[in-house]
Amino acid sequence: MQFSSTLLENAVNEFAKLPGIGKKTALRLVLHLLKMDAEKVVAFGETVIKMRQEIKFCQRCYNVSDADICSICSNSMRRPESICVVESIRDVIAIENTQQFNGTYHVLGGIISPLDGVGPDQLTIEALVNRVSKEKTEEVIFALNPTIQGDTTIYYIQKKLQSTGVRITTIARGIAFGGELEYADELTLGRSLQNRMPVESYVSHR
Amino acid sequence: MQFSSTLLENAVNEFAKLPGIGKKTALRLVLHLLKMDAEKVVAFGETVIKMRQEIKFCQRCYNVSDADICSICSNSMRRPESICVVESIRDVIAIENTQQFNGTYHVLGGIISPLDGVGPDQLTIEALVNRVSKEKTEEVIFALNPTIQGDTTIYYIQKKLQSTGVRITTIARGIAFGGELEYADELTLGRSLQNRMPVESYVSHR
Question: What is the ipTM of this complex?
Fold first, then answer.
């Protein structure tokens, strides 16, 4: 693409580095910024820089946080006895949006995946085991994606936690609400039959 | 969406203000920035701020520019006698990408559209008329979108330029390359018959 301004070209190139944004979309965004008030564009740039420079990771659960301990961990209304183990910050936001969980989290920072060079040491597994031994944890709930790597991670952590005697569960797998039986894969449908649940508990949760 | 960090939330909100970017995409972009090196994120923010604060508009053609006169107008290889009139900077970039034009541009900054409250005075029409009277202009080529507003703008400017005796043309309208006759609208197809061109000039341009 030909630009008559290096300033414009540099800004387009910076946006085009972001995932899912090509040159044309980047140009559209930059031309929009060009039309905006200068102070609003300064606010945009400074907010992004401030976010990257000042954001912290919670020392207890490794979620993103403005302080040393995140707003979920420091909230006295949340039950610290229940720890939901997730892969990333994105999963915390997804679960928080359901408003169905009032415990705390533990962000692993990834999942065990030898092919990608990610071993247990790169994740916050040791910190989780320490948390469970020291705090009065009653239950560890795994909310990991249903992949081989996810299952490997559950298996590995579960072995480490066995000696603590804590209750270990995983979120239910099955046919999604709104999903059609005939299009479900055999594994999901098969498992959802094996792990069938009493109708009274199903009805009470709807 | 629930965030445990105000810094993160502010950055997501800033991105979500951009056109075509919703909350989910904004979150994806911000989480990507969070994983990037801090100095790269600072470079991103500063490039955007610098672009908005330092970019100029060429005093001759109103294209975006790093200096008072843009790189196209100050390029001695380009013919200043030929002026291509376009609606916006975006159109300059589109025409430059064809590499078929070696004249200069004039960016109107919009088109006449009474319904949107845009009259001739808000556009750079007077500057164009001045340019044509003062410079040794040979031809003014209109490259505006084929809408009623575009045609109105052409008609208005053409009236203003009539006394100068300059040659006034507009880019060809017709069936696009790769277009199918049967799916073309009647107006385009009808006009392309009226404005038919000799085969030898068609063949020599392919």
Answer: 0.82
CB-based contact B72 A4, cutoff 8 Å: yes
Q: Are A116 and A185 in the same domain?
A: yes
CA distance B184 to chain A (A): 26
Give, as one character, the DSSP assignment of residue A176.
P
A71/B4 CB distance under 8 A: yes
Same domain, A88 and A128: yes
pTM: 0.80
Match 């052409």 to its residue by tokens: B154
pLDDT digits (tens, 9 = 90+) for A42-96: 999 999 999 999 999 999 999 999 999 999 999 999 999 999 999 999 999 999 9
Residues 55-94 of B with CB under 8 A from A: 55, 58, 63-66, 70-72, 88-90, 92-93
CATH number at residue A174: 3.40.1360.10
**Other beta carbons less than 10 A from residue B13's beta carbon:** 15
Distance CA B32, CA A153 (A): 24
Q: Which domain holds residue B200?
A: 79-204
Q: Same structural domain for residues B171 and B124?
A: yes
Instruction: Work out how many domains chain A is built from and give that number.
Output: 2
Q: Which residue among A18, A29, A93 places its CB closest to the CB of B3? A: A93
Using a CB-CB distance cutoff of 8 angstroms, which residues of chain B are in contact with residue A22? none
Q: Tell me which residues of chain B, numbers 117 to 146, contact chain A at a CB-CB cutoff of 8 Å.
A: none
**A90 in the same domain as A37:** no
A199 and A97 housed in the same domain: yes
Q: Closest Cα to residue A48, out of A28, A33, A63, A70?
A: A33
Q: Coil, strand, or helix at residue B107?
A: strand
CATH number at residue A25: 1.10.8.420
